[in-house]
Amino acid sequence: MASAAVLKRSESIADNMPDALRQSRYHMKKCFAKYIEKGKRIMKLHHLMDELEKAIDDKNERTQVLEGKLGYILCTTQEAIVVPPHVAFAVRQNPGFWEFVKVSADDLSVEGITTTDFLKFKEMVYDEKWAKDENALEVDFASLDSSIPHLTLSSSIGNGLSFVSKFMTSKLNGKVENAQPLVDYLLSLNHQGEKLMINSTLDTALKLQTALVVAEVFLSALPKDTPYQEFELRFKQWGFEKGWGDTAQRVKETMRAVSEVVQAPDPMHMEKLFSRLPTIFNVVIFSPHGYFGQSDVLGLPDTGGQVVYILDQVKALEEELLLRIKQQGLNVKPQILVVTRLIPDARGTKCNQELEAINGTKHSNILRVPFQTENGVLQRWVSRFDIYPYLEKFSQACSKKDATAKILDVMEGNPDLVIGNYTDGNLVASLMANKLGITQGTIAHALEKTKYEDSDIKWKELDPKYHFSCQFIADTISMNATDFVIASTYQEIAGSKDRPGQYESHSAFTLPGLCRVISGINVFDPKFNIAAPGADQSVYFPHTEKQRRLTSFHPAIEELLYSKEDNNEHIGHLGDKKKPIIFSMARLDVVKNISGLTEWYGKNKRLRNLVNLVVVGGFFDPSKSKDREEIAEIQKMHALIEKYQLKGQIRWIAAQTDRQRNSELYRCIADTKGAFVQPALYEAFGLTVIEAMNCGLPTFATNQGGPAEIIVDGVSGFHIDPSYGDDASNKIADFFEKCKVDATYWNKFSIAGLQRINECYTWKIYANKVLNMASIYSFWRRLNKEQKQAKLRYIQMFYNLQFKSLVKNVPIPSEEASTVPKPN
Ligand code: UDP
Ligand code: LCN
């Protein structure tokens, strides 16, 4: 379908389309007549192409049209709205760049239209009255952003930190007095009231600059490893406080970075300086929903990769904080609190325990605070889609029972940074950060909006089940309130050439009857940064590291994979033990597509002859699940095993909760010279991909979402397109055929996968990046204080007038009713 033509960057669709239509006027008249024939509707690219095919039956003529400018415009169209006699097109030539045009089917005249007009077109399909209401509420966050610099290149999206450093550089540049905001910032740094870096003796840029020269000369005469304590008193007299470094050498380097920035700032020294400043000691991480625990929770409703991510993230952040604090010459214990809800009805987990130390850390804990209702504490788990009524109270500090009050109590003061996770955590983080005036970061993990087609315009239909009205507004609020966004991949922000990003889909959307968001978020905002997670390398290590292998699990894994009998943990068996295994592990959701993989395997004889299939996920007995989607998937799996007579070649293992054993399972699959397959219809990031690659297992993963970025196709693994199952299964079969004739082929991909991980996907890299973000954006929010205040006021109004009334529509469960989890 790809078109050979492209437009120059300066060429707009509105300028080009008339000419393009004119060149094929006869066919286009027919084609547009087809488009409007069925009346008002939303058309996606494939609909446009289907109708075009019907309108131009001659293949050569069709190809000619598609290869020209018109083909290009159609191919870059994300959707078209038909309101006869017009068709409005939303065209996206590059990530983040949208243009809207309307074409008259009568005379093929073209007119560029605004985002507002395009959204009104869309509303006409579902709610004409609202579309025509002159007083319909329009939300426009861009109107408050005019003073904030924005990136301009698609390729720079997600690189906010370095952009902000450059911009700060230009702000502080010029006369020495221009560095005063930095001096004021340094003056404000403290830990629990104890001053850090400088005191009021050095309250101007000039004084600081002069003192730094003297201090540097003094330090040059000292042995590099002289401890800070030995010259602390003298430094204090000069106006310097602790925090510059633990040794003379470190202090000197930090001072040099400040001197450079005061003299003539450049982004490199700016970044270096902020990576060294003692700004972050106490961190709060919100993740209210699900069962949040360290053991026996994976597989429970709404508890998946987010929990794994956060627990590993905490370990990495604590480690990095400890290192930085030591290097800053401070004797301070960092604290990280993961704040979640306490669930009295904990079902054998520790989710009813208030405080739980996080394994593998020294100073980090899970703090659980129950949800309060009018009838007291909510006893049971609630779906993340129904969680909104409890969040405001949860975030408050009004009574000792509220989360913020508890946090302040446990931390004995304000945190320096609050990080939210997913819609609920991000909203709570926004409320708390705003109240306490602290720096905020957000992590989406997965934004639901893109998972369901037309979920904004159809919100009324979906709301009873998913409460998307609350979710999309909450997400938009948090994206705008936060100081920085931590994304796992570029595609999460701005998608790919063909597909809009998850954040990008919030740039303009409409909820007819509620509000028309003409500017929800701008993906060119420098708050966006990419910091990809890793996998815990003490758990997920290469299969070749024989001395580290967890051999005690081998008998159990042997049983799990090869025993002949079906039981509660596994069904199906593997007749030929010599064959390599292709392996997949995921929650049994439709979108994870484990049933899709089973079907591809079932249909592909060549693949079946080459390898066995092992999948981990869900239960076998549908009556054990309360999740409608999961029940359907379980039934589908059984039907596929039957239909393709897979017994003897497939092993289906129920959801696993022991990550140590899981890691050894990945390695045992690698021992068979097998592969990991992640077949999801869409995957926001995909931790299992990272885990498998860390274990040295060659990996085939979906090209829809994060894995497309994690793996370089044909180099560090392979992409598969879940929409083309036959191609995917043939690609896997080709690999194993090549492995048969070339003994080095398997190793090549095993090693390249590991190399890719170590270069880009480790928690060490992540922690370093995130703490740098926290430090730089803490200063950035100060530099943009007025603008930030104005935005927070706007958000507050939106929250109070819109969000709070929507929350009232979300039912609060009566405790007697049985829990019916919603689909994930
Ligand atoms: N997982 C697990 N047991 C299972 C299925 C998954 O322990 O039966 C783990 C898996 O190892 C990974 C996480 O759950 O650490 C899933 O994360 P991913 O990002 O792949 O998907 P999510 O569930 O978050 O959508
Ligand atoms: C949620 C998802 O859907 C996964 O793709 C991610 O890997 C996980 O969260 C961790 O961020």
What features would you describe in this structure?
By secondary structure, the protein is an alpha/beta fold. It contains 31 helices and 27 strands. β18 and β19 form a beta hairpin. α8 packs parallel to α30 (763-783), α14 (305-327) crosses α30 (763-783) and α17 packs across α19 (468-481). Residues 817-824 have low confidence and may be disordered. The site of uridine-5'-diphosphate (UDP) has 20 residues, from α14, α25 and α26.
Provide a compact summary of the structure:
The chain is α/β, with parallel strands linked by helices. The protein is built from 31 helices and 27 strands.
Characteristic key phrases:
alpha/beta; eight-stranded mixed sheet; binds uridine-5'-diphosphate; binds 1,5-anhydro-D-arabino-hex-1-enitol
Structural class: alpha/beta
Q: How many helices?
A: 31
Please give the number of β-strands: 27
- Provide mean pLDDT, rounded: 95
List the helices and strands and how they pair.
Layout: H1 13-23, H2 25-37, E1 41-44, H3 45-55, H4 59-67, H5 69-75, E2 77-83, E3 86-94, E4 97-104, E5 110-113, H6 115-126, H7 128-132, E6 138-140, H8 160-172, H9 180-188, E7 190-191, E8 194-195, H10 205-220, H11 232-238, H12 248-263, H13 267-276, E9 282-286, H14 305-327, E10 335-342, E11 355-357, E12 364-370, E13 372-373, E14 376-377, H15 391-395, H16 403-411, E15 417-421, H17 422-436, E16 439-443, H18 459-466, H19 468-481, E17 484-487, H20 490-494, E18 509-511, E19 515-519, E20 528-530, H21 554-562, E21 570-571, E22 581-585, H22 594-603, H23 605-610, E23 612-616, H24 628-643, E24 650-653, H25 659-671, E25 675-678, H26 687-694, E26 699-702, H27 707-710, E27 718-720, H28 725-741, H29 745-760, H30 763-783, H31 785-807
Helix pairs in contact: 2-3, 8-13, 8-30, 10-12, 12-13, 14-30, 17-19, 19-31, 22-24, 22-28
Uridine-5'-diphosphate binds next to α14, α25 and α26.
